[in-house]
Every structure is written in C-alpha cells, then in structure tokens.
Design goal:
extended, single chain, 108 residues, 4 helices, 40% helix, mainly alpha
Length: 108
C-alpha cells in the first residue's frame, strides 16, 4: 500500500459502524420513501466552498478539488469519452451500478 495512503488512513480512521443498519425496503414504495429520507441525512464531511475549473461544476468534482491533493485528482487518469475497445453499453453499465448499489443497500 502507498505510504501516503497509509498515513491518511491512520490519521483519519473510519467511523465506527452504525449501531443499527440501514433498513432494507421490501417494496418499491418503501424504497422511494427511504431515498427521500436519505436526503435529510447529515453529511459526513462539510460541503467545500465554490471551486473553479470544469470539475467544480458538480459536487464530486468540488470535493475532489478541495479535499484531495493534486496527486489524487483526475489529472489524466480517466476520460469521459467512451473507450472504443470496451464492448459494454453505457446504459447497461448504469443499470449494473444501480443493481450493485441496491444489493449493498446504498442510497445514491
């Protein structure tokens, strides 16, 4: 493991697990209610101030720009352009994302 990552993990340990796990919805209606309730949840880290640049237009970009050093920002690591070598359609990948999120009881 990268020593810098190890240092960050040691200085900022993960919060203890919640005493009670998040409820699992049994119906679509209940799932929608839980998603609405999650909008009122207290954020784990404060919202950063307005940033600059193309990544600052969305919250994920603002968080990366403010909280991560330049070594860990995108800086050429990825592209929004589809890779012609990949055979999976983006719509299918999005569906897989939502299926995996639900299987892990994540609210996005």
């Amino acid at each position: 493991m990268n020593p810098l990552v190890m240092l960050v993990l040691l200085q900022n340990p993960a919060p203890p697990p919640a005493p009670v796990p998040k409820p699992v919805a049994e119906t679509r209606v209940r799932e929608k209610e839980l998603l609405e309730e999650s909008k009122k949840a207290k954020p784990r880290i404060p919202m950063p101030p307005e940033g600059t640049g193309p990544l600052a237009r969305v919250n994920n970009g603002r968080f990366r720009q403010y909280y991560l050093s330049s070594d860990f920002q995108f800086g050429g690591l990825g592209s929004r352009e589809p890779d012609p070598e990949l055979t999976l359609d983006n719509t299918f990948k999005v569906k897989l994302f939502w299926i995996a999120s639900r299987a892990n009881n994540c609210y996005y």
